[in-house]
């Protein structure tokens, strides 16, 4: 299925049962809520999806199930986050063989690769597949920045088409537009900068709190793109305390609690993660409860 690299793309959580198995039943409930809200793609196995804890067969099961469930209503994108080039190419092949429409790829994990090594890593993966690729550029969390000069080299691969822009530097959107125009699509990867990024020309939003609040997330995107900025800003201001739960080391636990509150998720996480405890749990629950209680009415789009 063709990817246009625009719109709201949930980086969905992976649902687990209490005995640590994939909970595909609850996963399907959440995916249906995303589809009903009008999202534009589904991203599997990202950081929010607890990618580092998933076994090869679980990733395969998630792709197969999601592709079958969405029935080509939206593209399914698989995240690739690996330590070695060889071990990145293997799940790329699996994703392609099992029906994924595209890939989101992080730089090498754990090892802080040089620019030359990072370019070689991405280049090898791109040449191993026909699937379209979005590069995840997040130097804050992963300590490797893909610079504009590096993108100049990478874009020689026609299937490298988009960037998940998570540098936290809004001016980088303008620099990318000035340098590459429409050749490199930009999707905001930081929930708390999403509306600002869309106003500066980003084509989409790889979102986290969308997992619990899909209608509100899609509404902000659609209203901004329709030029209805004040209406979008009203929802965005309500959303901000919740969006801040995404820029936190416990983002997975935070967002799963929010999914529980909106009835489209469950809390179990996979060790070494554990459910929130004590004062932090109370703090996060208070933010979520306030958000649910004051949930805004969505205008007609």
UniProtKB/TrEMBL annotation:
One of its GO terms (molecular function) is 4-hydroxy-tetrahydrodipicolinate synthase activity. Keywords: Lyase. The active site is at residues 136, 164. It comes from the Bacteria. Pyruvate binds at residue 206. It holds the Pfam family DHDPS. InterPro entries: Aldolase_TIM (IPR013785), DapA-like (IPR002220). It is an enzyme of class 4 (lyase). Its EC number is 4.3.3.7. PANTHER family: DIHYDRODIPICOLINATE SYNTHASE. Belongs to the DapA family. This is 4-hydroxy-tetrahydrodipicolinate synthase. It comes from Flagellimonas maritima.
């Amino acid at each position: 299925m063709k990817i246009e690299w625009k719109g709201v793309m949930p980086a969905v959580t992976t649902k687990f049962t209490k005995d640590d198995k994939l909970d595909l039943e609850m996963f399907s409930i959440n995916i249906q809520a995303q589809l009903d809200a009008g999202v534009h793609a589904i991203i599997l196995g990202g950081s929010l999806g607890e990618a580092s804890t998933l076994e090869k067969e679980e990733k395969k099961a998630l792709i197969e199930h999601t592709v079958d469930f969405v029935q080509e209503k939206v593209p399914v994108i698989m995240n690739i986050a690996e330590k070695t080039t060889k071990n990145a190419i293997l799940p790329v092949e699996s994703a392609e063989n099992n029906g994924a429409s595209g890939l989101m790829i992080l730089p090498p994990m754990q090892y802080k690769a040089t620019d030359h090594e990072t370019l070689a890593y991405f280049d090898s993966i791109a040449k191993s597949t026909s699937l379209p690729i979005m590069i995840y550029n997040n130097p804050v969390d992963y300590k490797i920045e893909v610079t504009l000069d590096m993108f100049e080299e990478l874009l020689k691969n026609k299937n490298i088409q988009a960037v998940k822009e998570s540098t936290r530097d809004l001016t980088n959107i303008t620099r990318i537009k000035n340098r590459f125009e429409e050749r490199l699509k930009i999707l905001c990867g930081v929930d708390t900068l999403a509306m600002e990024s869309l106003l500066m020309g980003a084509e989409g939003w790889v979102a986290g709190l969308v997992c619990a609040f899909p209608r509100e997330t899609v509404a902000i995107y659609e209203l901004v793109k329709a030029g209805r900025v004040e209406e979008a800003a009203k929802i965005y201001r309500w959303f901000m305390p919740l969006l801040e739960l995404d820029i936190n080391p416990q983002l997975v636990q935070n967002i799963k609690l929010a999914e529980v509150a909106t009835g489209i998720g469950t809390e179990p996480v996979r060790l070494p993660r554990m459910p929130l405890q004590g004062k932090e749990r109370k703090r996060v629950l208070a933010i979520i409860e306030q958000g649910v209680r004051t949930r805004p009415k969505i205008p007609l789009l």
